[in-house]
Amino acid sequence: MQIAIISDSHDNLPNIYKALEHIKKLKIVTLIHCGDVCAPAVLEEFAKNFSGRIYVTCGNVDGDHEGFKRIAKKYSHITIFENAGEIKIENTNIGFAHYPDVAHDMATHDNFDIIFYGHNHKPWEEMVKNTKLLNPGTLAGLFNKATFALYDIETKNAKLVLLEKI
């Protein structure tokens, strides 16, 4: 089973639509967004264009937390986490946050198999103790090329997807 990981989409609707189309073609049913969606209306576009589970943690430019909560209440397949989230899929403990320092702190507790994070717009993968940390980069393409990641729960392999290549 694969899951999709997006971060720092910054209201870039053309990139969001393109990524979601690719994710749907792969029949992925779980999406994690590591923050900086920006506007609640854009979160609603995620909800309208992806029917699988969507987990979102808030980033530094996601100022309207109440607006995000309203969208999550309207669409039952969205779950919002203020600072960091944790879920379990097929016996895999998954953590996610916006900030790298929060993700690193989460990894030191050794409660997770993998932790996803964003904020700095740089794709990155590393091990901290026994936990893999992964940054999918920026879907908006700000400061770096537009990217997102796919993670296979069974094989534990991650793949970076360059938006211009799909």
Give a summary of the structure in a few sentences.
The chain is an alpha/beta fold and 166 residues long.
What does this protein look like?
- By secondary structure, the chain is an alpha/beta fold.
- It has one domain: 4-Layer Sandwich (Purple Acid Phosphatase, chain A, domain 2).
- 25% of the residues lie in helices and 33% in strands.
- The protein has a six-stranded mixed β-sheet. It has a five-stranded mixed β-sheet with strand order 5-6-7-9-8, covered by helices on one side.
- The longest helix is centred in the N-terminal third of the chain and has 13 residues, at 13-25.
- It is globular.
- The model has no long low-confidence stretch (mean pLDDT 97).
Helical content band: 25-40%
Q: Biggest sheet, in brief?
A: 6 strands, mixed
Give me the CATH fold name.
Purple Acid Phosphatase, chain A, domain 2
Rounded to the nearest angstrom, the distance between the terminal CA atoms is 20 Å
Number of strands: 11
CATH architectural designation: 4-Layer Sandwich
Kindly provide the name of the CATH class.
Alpha Beta
How many separate domains make up the residues?
Answer: 1
Averaged pLDDT, please? 97
Radius of gyration, in angstroms, nearest whole number: 14 Å
Q: How would you name the CATH homologous superfamily? A: Metallo-dependent phosphatases
How would you sum up the global shape? Answer: globular
Count of DSSP H/I helices: 4
Low-pLDDT regions? none
What structural class do you assign from the helix and strand content? alpha/beta
Q: Which H/E pattern describes the elements?
A: EHEHEHEEEHEEEEE
How is the largest sheet built, in terms of strand order? 4-3-2-1-10-11
Beta fraction:
25-35%
